[in-house]
Amino acid sequence: MKIFSEELVKEACDKSHVTDLGHATIGEVLLVAQYLENKTGIPFIRMDQGSPGLPVNKFGVEAEKRALDRGVGSQYPAAAGVPELKEAAHEFVKAFINVDISARSCIPTTGSVAGSFGGFIACTQRIPGKNKVLFIDPGFPIQKSQLRITGIEWKEFDIYDYRGEKLRGKLEELMSDGTIAAIIYSNPNNPAWISLEEDELKIIGEMATKYDAVVMEDLAYFCMDYRHDLGHPYEAPYVRTVAHYTDNYILMLSSSKIFSYAGQRMALVCVSDKLYDTYYPALKERYHDAGVFGSTFVAEILYMITSGCTASTQYGYAEMLRLSCEGKINFVEDTREYERRANKMKKIFCNYGFNIVYPNDVTEPVGDGFFFTLGYGNMSGGDLVRELIYYGVSSINLDTTGSYEPGVRACTSRMRDELYPVLEERMKAFQEDHAFAK
User: Fold this and answer.
1) Cα–Cα distance between 190 and 370 in angstroms, integer?
2) What integer best gives the mean pLDDT of the chain?
3) Cα 256-258-259 angle, rounded to 5 deg
4) Phi-psi region of 327 (alpha: psi -120 to 50; beta: other; left: phi over 0)
5) Strands 106-109 and 267-271: what pairing?
6) Which of 29, 223, 416, 434 is most solvent-facing, going by the fewest CB within 10 Å?
7) Max Cα–Cα distance, the chain, nearest Å
8) 337 falls in which pLDDT band (50, 70, 90)?
9) At CA 131, angle to CA 125 and CA 137, rounded to 5?
10) Residue 197 CB partners (closer than 8 Å, separation 6+)
11) Residues 6+ apart with CB under 8 A from 145
12) In angstroms, what is the C-alpha Rg of the chain?
């Protein structure tokens, strides 16, 4: 039996100005869920927005307070970042990724969203005719919205059928015309939680070098592949990265998930030193500067987007990075709650007829973590989003992430212990009402 009537859901969509719930954005689904919850008092199982669901890291908060007490709030922060954060970033990348990037090339941004926005601009302007972005989907929908704002064109493909060595042929097909300026993906992946394996990262790196494309590697869910014993500073295994296979890369490191620091909007873009120092005549002509990628990226592009990042937050992030390198913060164990939530939630869904849409990596089953994917029989992703809303469960259609597979994305971050029996009761009712779809 449905929790919410079709009439009430329609009212929620009308009041929230959502015209197509089945293909709604994350924000639109959120509005509908909030409307229904506020109107009825019935709690939702919120799987829509990927906002952290753990306490903020106290070490960052205390470091920010000390910075404000020192008076850093009275001065504009340098666009390139405060030295303490840049040095801590350099050390953090070495400790957990085993890659040596100079402090100079580690640049703070107001979240990875600002980093990707600036990165898209810099990468597509550096070489005439090389002006498109390639998305290895499924991926983060906002990044395509950024390209709509700037007018940058893109290509895309769903990696579902192109894992392992098959990836090389697909990249060759899409990159051989020479127009691809950048390649972007997240690892682990939002929304599917797949993780690219070493052989796949090697292929991407080789193709980036062959066709002079910059790989923008989004590491928002850093060390959250809990299948492997990651997170020990200066010890293998290290986080997998394309940076071991090409010099054409930008790594994006966000504080939002690993330190639950989302409200402070702080991330880093770590540019390979070789790319940072590369001279591009097209950049020199456009910006009337030295035409060097790194300096143009920082002073002419990122600064125009954010005018620098909040100074106190930079000191907070620097402290968290520094203590992680010293082994005094175990951010992997701090975030492992997401793994436990995903495991419980997936069991409930699968017990009542659902399936995991992206179930495997190349050599092992997909892990449990911040996100997972769900399908149900022959239902489309749009139909599944709409039907789940009637049972008090909010999600987003996988096709909004570039996926070609029917299903939805589920986020674990807002799950609470008291909601597991509620979820089980609702999914039992869902299965009883949807036997026709199996």
Assistant:
1) 8
2) 96
3) 70
4) left
5) antiparallel
6) 416
7) 66
8) very high
9) 120
10) 164, 240, 361, 362, 363
11) none
12) 22
